[in-house]
Amino acid sequence: MFKRIGLFLITNLAILLVLSFTARLLGVDQILSANGLNMGGLLVFAAIFGFGGALISLAISKWTAKMWVGARVIETPSDATERWLIDTVRRHAQLAGVGMPEVAVYDAPEINAFATGANRNNALVAVSTGLLRNMTPDEAEAVLGHEISHVANGDMVTLALIQGVLNTFVIFLARVIGYLVDRVVLKNDRDSGGIGYFLAVTVAQIVLGVLASIIVLWFSRRREYRADAGGALLAGREKMIAALERLKVMHEPSTLPAQVKAFGIGGGDSGGLAMLFMSHPPLEDRIAALRAGAVASGFSLAR
Predict the structure, then answer these.
(1) Given 141, 147, 252, 284, the catalytic residue
(2) What residues does 105 pair with on adjacent strands?
(3) For the whole prediction, is pTM greater than 0.85?
């Protein structure tokens, strides 16, 4: 759960910076800023590049996740554990009404799992070896139900669309700021922006990108409650609660690379400002929400 969002955000920001640099090399920024800022053209440019960056990130999300964690997709089960894993994911997918995802295992000591993919019928569900070793079958079943719920709820697509809107504003506002810095602060009266414009745009885009990520992470935290409720629907509420309780007991610092750490199942336990940068609510809040039974899963079981 936790890795999915972090990798998406990092990939998206990297793509935005590459697209921005490419636009600079191709002279797009100079055209937009010549003889005053072309606001209409800038908005169209920002929308194309903003949604383009988010959609590219979504399209390569499975490939990126496999690469970062070294996940091995199970083509043919090699033992009873892998057969159980395939059968459980298939059963959850059928109940949730989604296509059978790819199922993968990656080597990591902590309890972790994630689902990603561009659409609900072409997803990837991956679990760590630590999860398979340290969770009971009932707890692991609930975790898999949680991940399938992310797929059924279309969380990656939803977040990609939100990110696309935010990217548009980031690109637009960064260039307005760059234009003002270049013309007003640095007094550049040339038709094309100078080095000050380029540096101001780059810095503004990074800062605004981080602020936009805070908004995406807020949406991510809300979606986690829905996925927990979906896991409870698919596997049973007590199993889902037991899985989260297990995570609390065995919580360890993740050994995943920073680029994918926000994609895993574990949640944080921080409060205050640190909460703004968390993709998951605290585990105790998620357990309390499940016990209260107040959050709808967002999908119906297939018949």
Answers:
(1) 147
(2) 72, 127
(3) no
